[in-house]
Description:
Blueprint: H1 4-14, E1 22-38, E2 41-48, E3 51-59, E4 62-68, H2 73-89, H3 115-118, H4 121-136, E5 141-160, E6 165-183, E7 186-196, H5 204-217, E8 227-233, H6 235-249, H7 251-255, E9 276-279, E10 300-305, E11 308-309, H8 316-322, E12 332-333, E13 342-343, E14 348-350, H9 357-364, E15 367-374, H10 376-379, E16 386-397, E17 400-413, H11 414-419, E18 421-424, E19 429-431, E20 437-439, E21 442-450
Parallel strand pairs: 8-15, 14-20
Antiparallel strand pairs: 1-2, 1-3, 1-5, 3-4, 5-6, 6-7, 8-21, 9-10, 9-14, 10-11, 12-13, 15-16, 16-17, 17-21, 18-21, 19-20
Amino acid sequence: MRTGAMDIAEDAMSLASGVSGEVEVFAESARTTAIKVYEGSVESLVSAEPQGVGVRVINCRRTGYAYTADLSRAGLEKVVESASANAEVGDSDEYVALPEPRGDYPEIGGLWRDGVSRLSAEEKISLALETERAALSVDEIETVEEAAYQDGEWRTALVSSTGISAFSESSFCYVYASAHASRAGSAQTGLGFCAGREPSELEPGTAGREAATKARSLLGAAPCPTGRYTVVFDRDVYAAVLSVLAQALSAEAVLRGRSALVGRLGHAIGDSQVDLLDDGLHPDGMATSPFDGEGVPHQRTQVISGGVLQAYLHGTYTARWEGRGAESTGNMRRGSYRSTPGVGATNLILASGSGSLEELIGRVGEGIYVSNLKGLHSGASSITGDFSVGVEGHLIEGGSLGRPVREVTLASDLISLISGVTDRGADSLWVPFYGSVLTPSVAVADVMISGE
């Protein structure tokens, strides 16, 4: 199926026929909507249709890149010329090269649904308002700080002088709310969300009530005693942990010595029950596509099996750098046509265990349930592996949730938060806030909590 993105990519490639070296053209055509509501009214509505092309030229081991949103013939000619000129002055690097074709791309049905484009702006606003109303319907919810609906449709095409020709399209949407509860001078917030390929898959009422219930449950929270606890991480909290692990899994970070996983390949970094998959083909994942940011087919890479680190995530460049038969794992990601590809995770999937969150808490017996964390970006490092973040949640007492807890700090490290896993629920959920992560609730033993 030919689309505007593929037409643009092929037109730009035809204009690069006289360019020396290897040429790659990445074209993108997207449509996005972001709506925020507050107190029953629209606070902001941003609709965009980004469209453009990026050209990468590799000549004599020098790389040049240029991009443009001008898709006229003159604009395409200029961007090809700019990329070629940039390659002439770039630094020489023996490992740069465009990938060769690897055969047919996998067929993945249902990545694009017409529901996002069929829904009017008014109907999308209604979904955000319904999320807000659901949160406000819960007792002691004072306000909803933010209720939102977001969606996107993306069509991308990539062609190269090495013979790659690829096209993909996908859609995604989600709603979320941040609710604010108040009681006798105590105030707390909670987050709720749901996501899907099209709006018909969303449950805004459920998302709103989840945000409200989380906020209300934390009212009256206070610090707990300092000590070492078994911690049960809520799904969206452990997704944050896995997002830091994903950065450390980058072969580029490893090769540059900027990863906590340097030298760990083939060694146990997790409990024997920990299995982690990078799956670029999962039909429900936000990062799913037939190919990565340089046209290599996406695949399923078993990153951790039985607690043992089995693989780093590679692109063509890092595979050539490492040598020793290494190949791209299809993990080159692009933010948009404005950027060159870089190594990154696709859909990270942690294998689930058994039972609901309540059953998991019952099996743990005594500990802390963490429903929220603060300071991830400043307190967690994929380079050193250090974790020092603020957390909120509840004590676990006698197999049930006890009094709420706040103003405490979780101090650990990345490896300990993987190796200390003792149990998992069967309540896996896609979390869209840290890339694309599918994880259940997770219990981790012997975690230091600093409180009163």
